Amino acid sequence: MSESKILSLCATCSKENAKYRCGNCKKSWYCSQECQKADWKSHKPKCNYDAEKLISLVIVKGEEVWEQKVPRVETDPTNGWIPCKITEMIGVPVMVKRWASYTQIPSSEKGIFLMVDPITGLAGPEWQQGCGIIAFARKDRTDMTVQLFWDLYSYIFHLMDYYTDDGFNYNQFRQRKLNYESFRVYQEEEHRLQEEFRQLNPAL
User: For the MYND-type domain, which residue ranges apply (predicted)?
Assistant: First the structure.
């Protein structure tokens, strides 16, 4: 259970100002652990159903990036999703889909960086000219979070320096950088630096 300041009725005893809600489905509220346990038998089928049917994916619209819950069926890999090549190579398979192909919306660096070709370091022209609203989902159909999106984006941004090197050797680059271990080392270091920044700048 997780605490919240939202005032709700307990699903078991109907008392007002229930402070806790189910940590799984986030929908049923309780005034105590005892009430949650008492309601579990009737709540369990619905709770499991909700958890199975909803999934988080990341939406990118221009410079905006946010998480959105959608029916799990929306992430069916056969329904217009295509793989992000670099994320597959570094061990975090992600798919992308044009959520709304509005050509008046300009292309966004934040979206197309995950679409770069691992050999050339460039995204195809279809992602560079008004790619519209796009969505990213994990290929294993678990939750795709904004934090993971930024981790992948940041790592691929970091890789771009290698492509501009005059002595670029793709085979060496693939072995050294396009793997899960290299991504995890970078990810852990980034998280450490972010935490240090938050501690030094608590007001931000």
Answer: 10-47
Q: How many CB atoms lie within 10 A of CB 116?
A: 20
Strand pairing class (29-30; 54-61)? unpaired
Query: What tokens does 52 get?
Result: 């199975």
Q: Report the alpha-carbon distance of residue 124 to residue 21 in Å, rounded.
A: 45
Q: What is the pLDDT of residues 99-138, one digit of tens each?
A: 765 445 555 667 788 889 999 999 888 777 767 788 999 9
Residues 103/128, Cβ–Cβ less than 8 Å: no
**Rounded distance between C-alpha atoms, residue 169 and residue 40, angstroms:** 58
DSSP secondary structure letters along 89-152: HTT--EEEEEEE--TTSPP-HHHHGGG--TTTS---GGGTS---EEEEEETT-SPPPHHHHHHH
Tell me the percentage of the chain whose pLDDT exceeds 90. 43
The residue ranges of every structural domain in the chain are 2-53, 54-200
The tokens of 127 are what? 């992602």
Task: Please give the helix or strand (H or E) that residue 30 lies within, else none.
Answer: strand 29-30
Terminal Cα distance for the chain, rounded:
28
What is the reported pLDDT for 139?
Answer: 94
pLDDT of 5 over the 60 cut? no
Per-residue confidence (pLDDT) for residue 102, from 0 to 100? 45
